[in-house]
């Protein structure tokens, strides 16, 4: 109920305005919590980001509430059968699934099958992993419905320890267009029950049918991680993702909240700490050293990019305002990560846009003089874009966060945030942000997360990080501390607004902020944990193999898979 001090009653006009405000607020709240949305596309994964989700641990494989589809009512090609069709119809071979020849061969074969008969919601087409880019993926095509529809699905297997998985299916919902998308979450080595549900835009059921597919095993990845739940787990919607390096056969793996593998994207990339970026309705990732691809929501490669400049590329972020990806890079003769390189997604052009050694000449000379040897005195480890023109970068070696303005037109250091006293000299002292309130320890920071929302004033944003090697001198113990700061750019200051202590873990520790939750990953223990905003563990996930394991991210994958 609303209470207005000093007002006895509202006149008709005010009552109308109140109803309008409440209705507007309700619509905004509904929009921010939807799992999907009609209208213009967005590449920032905001729909459902960090929202709480009920993830019941249930297995409905044996239930018979949904009618099983007759064998002659649908068409299914296994990954092996479809690959054979590709090879038989062209000169393509499977040594490089990301080659233009292989992808064109797969697409041509797919188009041939689609034209072979009239597929409908009642008579759909299914092809497992048609483009070779997700072994847990299932292409589905239901023709061109006469009305706008929504498609959702649920996958279950007979193994009771593997819970059901399902979501809405992302596709172009424009009336009169083909409806096709990629179901993810198939379990290899098992018979999968896939319930496909079609409704109109008002939720009225059009069709609901259960299909069964035998999916062969193609890899040795862990289907289910060892997962321990907190006392009252409240999950956030999304999929955990990390880069898994295993010799020449590496992968980007996606696990659900119960630690079950739901997508496996192959790559031959061999460097460290790679990740998948969502760019509008496509995804972008490395397939080899300095080679990247853009993949549509069906898993088909639509563009391939090769960096032919000097050195290697490392962490990157997407600039959605200019449709560019910005990389951190080193040079061919120097292992130091001290440059910024841009990739124009639309045109495919590459350009070096920043050299951090030129921005920090005094610090470079001082560091080399102190150490007495040449070393990576900077070691930039993470990058985040701001407003399509500025960036935040984090130096692992200096445990410092820099804001660089005018990225494309003339980069300058706007400010730096650090606890390192070596910055207190005449060249850089004026650039240091002032810390208000409690002074925090920043001696082992190598990544950060940038966040903003509509409640903040202009020039304000949140910055979070974890100081993973903090020492309690009095007790001679170590621990990790998560910090969330409010940055006030116009005032050149910042203050702590959230602080959570975590147990110390040997080796490297990374953090990301996902909604109000915190996700920590530990490469030495090959473990990651999701915490709520109070520091309570939601779930702990343990990988059982000895292969390389890197920073864990979490994505909604809305407007790509869902």
Automatic annotation (TrEMBL):
List, alphabetically, the PROSITE patterns matched. PROKAR_LIPOPROTEIN
Q: Which UniProt keywords apply?
A: Membrane, Transmembrane, Transmembrane helix
Put simply, this protein is called: Arylsulfotransferase N-terminal domain-containing protein
Pfam families from the entry?
Arylsulfotrans (PF05935)
Membrane-spanning segments: 12-31
- Please name the InterPro entries in this protein's record: Arylsulfotransferase_bact (IPR010262)
Q: One MF term from GO for this chain?
A: aryl sulfotransferase activity
